[in-house]
Design goal:
The protein is of the alpha/beta class. Helices cover about 40% and strands about 20% of the residues.
């Protein structure tokens, strides 16, 4: 029988036939309005995590103010990292790499995480790993579901992106569907504003929709009967028109029941559309596994509809727990571990790419990342 040597860090010992490298990777997410930090120990899972949301900070402005976001990341980051290491019972010297979101995202916010990660890693003599935020959303599904083997179809739906991806392997992503205008999360956020609901709109709409009738208004299901691309701005405009006319009829603000019916009908339109796109993507690729990821992936109706469909046709439908759908540090730590080359040179360079197409990534160890 071959012996298995478990080690921390990177040690190539020719005397040991099989070496499993156990690595502790710190993950730092600062691409937008959440400061997320976590430690992932390869083979063991997430050891500790923490998240600081900036929702209240930006609320008075009705949207994210980039400069405030950067400053708040600066204020929170080192305290969160110290707390997470403490909770994991580790010191910085126990880390084998520091992963950070390098894009896409707000440039100033990305620079905060990148500067912190690169300088700390440099001081410790370990690699800093730039991580693609959407790849992290996608890969965390594999931490949650070990049966999720490649290849699979991923529906990546967040505040800034709506994509269908043919995932052939780590770093082998082919974009097969994209949004032509607003992202699904953006549509939730904009419609929430129309209904006078707080940001982020997704959870607020989902909550209100629970007491509404999804059949009370008939909203368009854009491009539902063709292709894999998505378009949500027409749906948003249709909702705006109805909200305006309902407000006029009511002579002012909408009654809660009316708002709930609008929320439920809008949610049904978006869920129906996303479900139809996923079904078509699975049929086109012939894959029997589907992953739903990104903030909108936390939507209970979307998860339920796709899970019900999958059960009926024998397709495995996976989705991370809701806290791993929305932005978090765990997904950065996990993706960083997959991308970490422990032998990489430690430098002080920072990668920050506000725009960074997912399908430009390559498998680890190849150019392009
Ligand atoms: O992935 P994420 O946390 O941040 C980005 O990378 O954009 O996604 C945030 C988006 C927001 O638009 C938010 O409204 C939406 O995800 N979202 C939801 C739900 N929870 C968050 N949309 C629908 N239903 C939800 N339960
Ligand atoms: Zn995200």
């Amino acid at each position: 029988m071959q012996s298995v040597l478990y080690i921390h860090g990177w040690l190539l010992d020719p005397g040991a036939p099989i070496i499993r490298v156990l690595m502790n990777v710190l993950g730092i997410e600062t691409s937008c309005d959440e400061t997320g930090v976590a430690v992932y120990e390869s083979g063991h899972g997430i050891r500790a995590e923490a998240l600081a949301s900036q929702i209240e900070l930006h609320r008075p402005f009705g949207g994210i103010v980039p400069e405030l976001a950067s400053r708040d990341h600066i204020a929170k980051l080192s305290g969160l990292v110290a707390g997470v290491l403490d909770e994991a019972g580790m010191s910085p010297e126990d880390l084998d790499g520091i992963a950070y979101t390098a894009g896409p995202g707000l440039i100033g916010a990305l620079m905060v995480g990148g500067a912190f990660a690169a300088s700390t890693a440099y001081g410790l003599g370990i690699p800093a790993v730039p991580v693609h935020h959407m790849e992290a959303h996608l890969l965390i599904g594999r931490l949650e579901a070990e049966t999720l083997e490649f290849p699979f179809v991923a529906l990546l739906v967040s505040g800034g992106h709506s994509m269908l991806v043919d995932v052939a392997g780590l770093g082998r992503y082919r974009l097969i569907g994209n949004t032509l205008d607003d992202a699904a999360g953006e549509a939730f956020d904009k419609v929430a504003r129309l209904l006078g609901l707080p940001y982020p709109g997704g959870p607020a709409i989902a909550r209100l929709a629970e007491i509404g009738d999804p059949a009370s208004f008939s909203f368009p299901r854009p491009l539902i009967d063709r292709g894999l691309d998505m378009s949500f701005s027409g749906l948003k405009t249709a909702v705006r028109r109805v909200v305006e006319s309902e407000k006029q009829k009511a002579g002012g603000a909408l009654a809660e029941a009316k708002g709930a019916n609008l929320a439920a009908s809008f949610q049904a339109a978006i869920v129906d559309t996303l479900v139809a796109k996923c079904i078509r993507a699975v049929e086109q690729t012939g894959y029997l596994r589907l992953l739903i990821a990104g903030g909108v992936g936390a939507n209970v109706n979307l998860r339920r509809s796709l899970a019900d469909w999958g059960r009926g046709v024998g397709v495995d439908v996976h989705y991370p727990r809701p806290a791993f759908c929305t932005d978090n540090g765990a997904m950065i730590a996990y993706a960083g571990a997959a991308r970490l080359n422990p032998a990489a040179q430690t430098g002080l360079g920072i990668v920050a790419r506000p725009r960074w197409p997912l399908d430009s990534l390559e498998p680890p160890g190849q150019a392009g990342h």
